[in-house]
Amino acid sequence: MPREFTEKWRAQESKTPFHTRIKDAIRPQESAKQRIDQATRRMELQIQRLDRASDTLQKRDETLFTKIVKAYQTHDMTRASVLANELAEMRKIEKAIMYARLALEQTVLRLRTVIDFGDAVSSLAPTMNVLRSVRTGLTDILPAAERELGEIGDILQGVIIDSKQGDELNINVEAANEDSQRILQEAANAVEKKISKELPEIPSIASTNENRQTEAEQLSGNDSQEMEGT
User: Fold this and answer.
1) Cβ-count burial 51-60 (b if 16+ within 10 Å, e if not)
2) What is the CATH number of domain 30-199?
């Protein structure tokens, strides 16, 4: 068995041109900052993907909302209820995408800053925490983006491992967790503001029925006053 393995290895090695093997041997490994820059660029591409998904959902949101309003106007409460539930579920997805997008944007901004002006490697721990959180939220929504973020995380994890082996990295775990939580909280706050500003509130069946009941009571009261006056 060892002999067969050796022969296969040599046969495979002989297929690779000698100059290619020399280049592979002397090619310098990418620096930590180069790999972080690569990961950051790939994150920026995922932000663009999330933007496209968000735009598509917002158009569908507007269409559904218009249908709900028309259903209320025609007093088709069953249809209005079904559409309102559909819109509520879709807005959960919109919210998750907004959250992921803003969290990644904050992370990219942070990495760009440290790449240019600071120790990029020491900032990877909070970045990894943010990526894990964002990936969890996208698993069932955008599987392709979730997988890509997983690969980005692998790149950054490799940088961390290499830096540990070189005794170059000193991570303050508590500070890293605080930084990542701060990024995630900022993203969550921004999403709430964006939703309240850009998305109209979904009409409530109960409130609509109450309004109609109030209007009916007012009309009934007016009719009674008119009868008493006559």
Assistant:
1) eebbeebeee
2) 1.20.1260
